[in-house]
Write a structure and sequence with these properties.
473 residues; alpha+beta; 434 Repressor (Amino-terminal Domain); Arc Repressor Mutant, subunit A; Beta-Lactamase; six-stranded mixed β-sheet; three-stranded mixed β-sheet; globular; transcription regulation; IrrE_HExxH
Length: 473
């Protein structure tokens, strides 16, 4: 008896028929079968035989592998990723059944994926709400009109990973590589010349598209990595708009500014994907063991651009280590925050002062490593380093920030930063909190605010060696 499983491809056959503009009777006539048999095939009430696949391929001049695949592997990987959510932990989903659903019912699978993304987005919105009551008893949501919070929610709900943009950017990168340079591609494809001009001529702009003169103007004070990124940004606006707009339509934004900031973030994502194409970059990160500096040299990008790209490598079926990313200034203000590793960032305020990202300013341009342990015992590995923006000429303003990149403990051994390093161990992790208001480590001398729900003791007769003394009740 044959061990081969029957092949059902009803939804794909129906989609093919509609794409060809055929009725069931038309297709039946073309394939020399009955219209009722076409209907049974489309409803998955009959399996496809090898003869039927050959008829389809010959009649409509289509590739059999393309017909049989039809995105099934990607759908399966995406559905499996969704079903790993703890919400489904008590439901048994055999891997074979998941593949059957994804391949046989792509429409249902797409609906499931959209619903889950919407659910994640609403979860994050709920987490951001401030439940402090108004005078009238209603609650306040300070983020409702906050465009930055809206953009962060959109990215976080999708784990900062957009396969359609990655695929389109990879195709565009192949086209660019067929020319001598990105500048040559812009000239040949769009008739645009690139000019590098002094900052005073640019009048505060880093990049500007002059459609009248058919020129892209770039501030000549930018370093090479920043200039390449600006050209990649402009090229993304010119050639990847459709993919970006398609992803943007999935979101719901309370303000126009929130939508614009999200579009800007997606275009930056596309530019990074153009400079660091997914397949090549995903292969390189494994070969170089996630060495950010070495990867930056290989792809001609900056340390920050490379670290940022590492947070996006969650394409279904081609996942790499999931990272979180944060960028802070010397005052502790968070200017960028991305989470693909399940790190519980504080929704409001700064991060824990014991985290090395805040000490990185003491050793500029050096990578600082650190193990972190949260109050619940969960551990993460983090690297931090300062990065600079601006400058490029004497007297030009330069901004220094620190960025941190980290992953969960189970992935840390894949990173070059933990290899052959007996001096750093998860057993010596620094105990940190998410934010002082949520951290109940009462003996922390770096605390800036008491935790919610703890009674502060009077210091009339005894002064604690920590900023606050607490009762044990």
């Amino acid at each position: 008896m044959s061990s081969e499983r029957p092949v059902y491809m009803g939804p794909r056959l129906k989609r093919l028929r509609r794409d060809l503009g055929l009725t069931q009777a038309d297709m039946a006539a073309d394939l020399e079968i009955s219209a009722s048999y076409v209907a049974l095939l489309e409803r998955n009430q009959r399996p496809f035989t090898a003869d039927m696949l050959l008829r389809l391929a010959r009649t409509y001049k289509i590739d059999m592998a393309e017909l049989a695949g039809d995105g099934g592997e990607e759908y399966t990987a995406r559905l499996e990723a969704v079903l790993k959510d703890p919400m489904f932990a008590d439901i048994d989903f055999p891997q074979l059944d998941t593949a059957d659903v994804a391949i046989s019912y792509p429409g249902f699978t797409e609906a499931m994926l959209r619903l889950y993304t919407a659910y994640r987005e609403e979860q994050l919105a709920l987490a951001d709400k401030d439940t402090a009551p108004r005078v009238d008893g209603s609650s306040v949501d300070p983020d409702a009109a906050d465009p930055v919070a809206q953009a962060r929610r959109f990215l976080a709900a999708r784990r900062n990973s957009f396969s359609s943009i990655d695929d389109a950017a990879e195709r565009l990168a192949e086209s660019v590589n067929s020319h001598e340079s990105m500048t040559a591609h812009l000239n040949d494809k769009h008739g645009l010349q690139v000019r590098r001009l002094p900052a005073d001529v640019m009048m505060g702009a880093t990049r500007r598209l002059d459609r009248h003169r058919r020129q892209i103007l770039i501030d000549d004070q930018l370093d090479n990595a920043s200039q390449r990124f600006q050209l990649a940004l402009q090229l993304s606006y010119l050639e990847l708009n459709d993919e970006i707009d398609s992803v943007l339509k999935e979101g719901s934004f309370a303000t126009e500014s929130g939508e614009r900031l999200t579009r800007r973030a997606l275009t930056s994502y596309a530019a990074a994907a153009l400079l660091m194409p997914y397949s090549a970059f995903a292969k390189a990160v494994e070969l170089r063991h996630y060495d950010v500096e070495a990867l930056a040299r290989q792809f001609g990008t900056s340390f920050e651009q490379t670290a940022h790209r590492l947070t996006t490598l969650q394409k279904p079926g081609q996942e790499r280590v999931p990272f979180f990313f944060i960028r802070v200034d010397p005052a502790g203000n968070v200017s960028k925050r991305l989470d693909g590793a399940g790190f519980p960032f504080a929704r409001h305020g700064g991060a824990c002062p014991l985290w090395s990202v805040h000490q990185a300013f003491r050793s500029p341009r050096q990578v600082v490593t650190q193990w972190l342990e949260l109050p619940d015992g969960e551990r993460f590995f983090s690297i931090a380093r300062t990065v600079t923006a601006g400058g490029g000429a004497f007297g030009s303003q330069q901004v220094e920030r620190a960025i941190a990149l980290g992953c969960a403990a189970e992935h840390a051994d894949r990173l070059i930063y933990t290899r052959d390093r007996p001096d750093i161990s998860p057993e010596n992790a620094t105990p940190i909190g998410v934010t002082c208001r949520l951290c109940h480590r009462t003996k922390c001398r770096s605390r800036s605010a008491p935790p919610i729900g703890r009674q502060i003791l009077s210091d009339d007769n005894r002064q604690s060696n920590t900023p606050f003394g607490f009762s044990h009740s």
